[in-house]
Automatic annotation (TrEMBL):
InterPro entries: ABM_dom (IPR007138), AI-2_Isomerase_LsrG (IPR050744), Dimeric_a/b-barrel (IPR011008). This is Quinol monooxygenase YgiN. Residues 2-90 form the ABM domain. SUPFAM superfamilies: Dimeric alpha+beta barrel (SSF54909). Gene3D superfamilies: 3.30.70.100. Keywords: Monooxygenase, Oxidoreductase.
Length: 110
């Protein structure tokens, strides 16, 4: 799978509305057949920073994402709300989803 994490620094006047501003893009991306997940989180130390954790089934799905109409629209509509170009880590990972963090295993109840 392709695993991507991106940091978005949002202009302070838009920070509380960022999820709403990015909502159409988020919904359309989550509806892509090759999207495994597309999840936003807000930094606990910087209220203007959002982190996007996303994954796509394979390179074909990743290519379809960046060639989609909603991605092209987001390239136009989202940057005016940002302080700087988002920073990203993009990697091919040899698995299909989340693995358990065994070092913090939760004991079985009962």
């Amino acid at each position: 799978m392709i695993f991507i994490t991106a940091k978005f620094r949002v202009r302070p006047e838009y920070a509380d509305r960022w999820i709403e501003i990015a909502d159409d893009f988020t919904r359309a991306t989550r509806d892509e057949p090759g999207c495994l997940w597309f999840d936003w989180s807000r930094s606990v130390t910087d209220p203007t920073e959002y982190v996007l954790v996303e994954a796509f089934r394979d390179e074909e799905a990743g290519a379809a994402h960046v060639q989609s109409d909603h991605f092209k629209e987001a390239q136009q509509t989202l940057p005016p709300h940002l302080v700087e170009t988002p920073r990203v880590v993009n990697a091919n990972v040899p698995q299909d989803g989340w693995s358990e963090l065994g070092e913090m295993a939760v004991p079985q109840q009962g």
